[in-house]
Amino acid sequence: MRAPMIDVAIVGAGPYGLSVAAHATAAGLDARVYGRPMEAWERHMPRGMLLKSEPFASNLADPGGNYGLEAYCRPRGFSCAYGEPIPVDTFVDYGRWFQSQAVGEALDPSQVTKVRAEGELFVIELETGETVPARAVVLALGFLPFAHRPAALSGLPAEVSTHSSEHHDLSRFAGLDVTVVGAGQSALETAALLLEAGARPRVVARGDSLRWNSVPDVSRPALRRALAPLSGLGTGWRSWVWSELPDTVRHLPAGTRRRIVRTTLGPAGSWWLRRRFDGHVPVVLGRTLAAAAHRDGVTLTLRDGAGMEGTLRTDHVIAATGYMVDVGRIGILDGRLTRAIRRTGTSPKLSRNFETSVRGLYTVGLAAADTFGPVMRFVHGAGFAARRVTRGLVSSLGVRPSTGAVGGRPVEHAAR
Ligand SMILES: Cc1cc2nc3c(=O)[nH]c(=O)nc-3n(C[C@H](O)[C@H](O)[C@H](O)COP(=O)(O)OP(=O)(O)OC[C@H]3O[C@@H](n4cnc5c(N)ncnc54)[C@H](O)[C@@H]3O)c2cc1C
Fold first, then answer.
1. Which residue, 400, 331, 381, 391, is CA-closest to 355?
2. What is the tens place of the pLDDT at every residue in 17-55?
């Protein structure tokens, strides 16, 4: 069945997709956001996880700023203070509340199975069999399409080798020896949660030591605050620029941008995780994965800095080895669209309004980090992205008076 044409189809209902939807509908655009709200946070992050970002840097964005995390937490008696990590369940519920308040009926929880071009339009194919013509498309797919695994694990079957993003309930590993590869928050927290779920985890990492973030100083004197301001990406002027001025990052040379994305908030564990990890989870440092074989569990071959190899036997290996943006891995894009997207390396080249080289096709979140810097890897970048994308949509599509209402309130034409 073919649905009536809409202005913009937003694919993905995570923090970025919902924020873009809130802005686009408020600007009078006929927008639809597709996907189950906050699904990646509910199903692809471990149960019991705490957010690494501070509450003030974990807001979804609506144009009026009415539906921040604090507006959700305070009336419910949940703490939302600096230095107090937010449980992932609370964040999922917050995202769904935001959707009900700021996005309303612009949500369609169907999965998008294909996005293709048809003349000047795009056509969105849904899992329901419905097709929807749209004048523009915003890809807000988040991190799931880009899960990165070390090549050495590629020959292992799925029952003994997974990526951290495949897990929510870690209790299935109770009693098993599990090796977690990686040194970032995801690796360290997965290992701590595995231990707490009755498994026998260990961490294998390339570096010679693990890094831990320091305890936040909640009462910093004014001088210290001026010398090292607080931002969504941590303290210090450099972090502040990457966090608050993503458009400045866009003007830096490509190599510099890439280095900033790679090194800002690099692999490190949260301060609150350390006491659950240190002394409880065995760690093998200074080793890279050279090979892996599957026979009666998994045998990993690990190589040290001098090239010496040793083996380690484990029941299951979890690659907590992050995400690498690659346009070629956006499976829902029709091949012709994929080929038409210009890139630097494997990331899309984007305009100042997050538009790809395909007119009317935008992408936000992690896929935009190569252009706008590290803040796009975090919820904190959602407000900037939503404002910019909406500005681009409004200027290229034009704004029509909206007849709809969002969350029971009349739509405000905020972009006029
Ligand atoms: C373990 C872990 C912990 C993290 N902790 C933090 C943190 O504490 N703070 C922080 O700021 N960031 C954190 N991040 C980064 C976080 O992923 C991003 O900040 C955030 O998810 C970005 O929002 P998003 O909307 O771009 O992506 P997502 O939240 O991934 O949302 C994208 C959505 O698109 C949906 N989708 C994909 N394909 C389709 C399709 N074809 N049809 C319909 N829907 C589709 C997905 O199911 C998903 O729900 C963490 C990441 C990981 C992996």
1. 391
2. 999 999 999 999 999 999 999 999 999 999 999 999 999
What is the Cβ-side half-sphere exposure of residue 337, based on CA atoms within 13 angstroms? 26
Tokens of 102: 């700021």
Residue whose structure tokens are 């939503």: 386
d(C-alpha 168, C-alpha 113), whole Å: 23
CATH 3.50.50.60 for domain 6-146+323-410, yes or no, is yes
How far, in Å, CA of 364 to CA of 390, rounded? 12
Q: Is the CB of 11 under 6 A from ligand 1?
A: yes
The stretches of 27-108 forming alpha helices (DSSP H) are 39-43, 69-76, 88-98
Q: Does domain 151-212+268-319 have CATH number 3.20.20.70?
A: no
- Phi-psi domain of 22 (left: phi exceeds 0; alpha: psi -120 through 50; beta: other): alpha
> Does the beta carbon of 193 sit less than 6 angstroms from any atom of ligand 1?
no
Any bridge partners for residue 147, and if so which? Answer: 323
Whether ligand 1 lies within 6 angstroms of the CB of 35 is answered as: yes
* 314-340 tens-digit pLDDT: 999 999 999 999 999 999 999 999 999
